[in-house]
Amino acid sequence: MYRAAEITLLTEARIAHGIHEAPTITERQVFATVSSLSEREREQARSMGLAPEIVFVLRLQDDYQNEKKILWQGEEYLVSFVNTSGDMLRLTAERSNHADSV
Questions:
Q1: In this structure, are residues 58 and 64 in contact, taking their beta carbons and an 8 Å threshold?
Q2: Whole-prediction pTM value?
Q3: Number of separate domains in the chain
Q4: Domain of 55?
Q5: Distance (Å, rounded) from C-alpha 96 to C-alpha 102?
Q6: CA dist., res. 34 & res. 13, Å (int)
Q7: How far apart are CA 35 and CA 13, in angstroms?
Q8: What is the mean pLDDT of residues 9-23?
Q9: Which DSSP helix (H) or strand (E) runs through 41?
Q10: Which of 7, 30, 59, 64 maximizes the CB count within 10 A of its CB?
Q11: What gap in Å lies between CA 72 and CA 78, rounded to an integer?
Q12: What is the pLDDT of residues 40-87, one digit of tens each?
């Protein structure tokens, strides 16, 4: 099932403050199509020890700037794979365990 949605791409950077570093988060909202993974995609990921759950498809590759985290519907996802096809970009992601969360 496909549905249009606004997602938030998250970038974490460490900023030095004297001898300490503080994480800063940059958020960017973009539009994407959200879909589930095919059974073939799930099996391929499992064989590599990954557990992706969802795919976010962006219309323009320019919308993506190598962010590794996505916030959607109150849940944080980690990007596992990035695939391009023409002007479409597929971000395959798995739910964050929040131990590493932004």
A1: yes
A2: 0.80
A3: 1
A4: 3-95
A5: 10
A6: 27
A7: 29
A8: 83
A9: helix 39-47
A10: 7
A11: 11
A12: 888 888 888 888 889 999 987 777 899 999 999 999 999 988 988 888
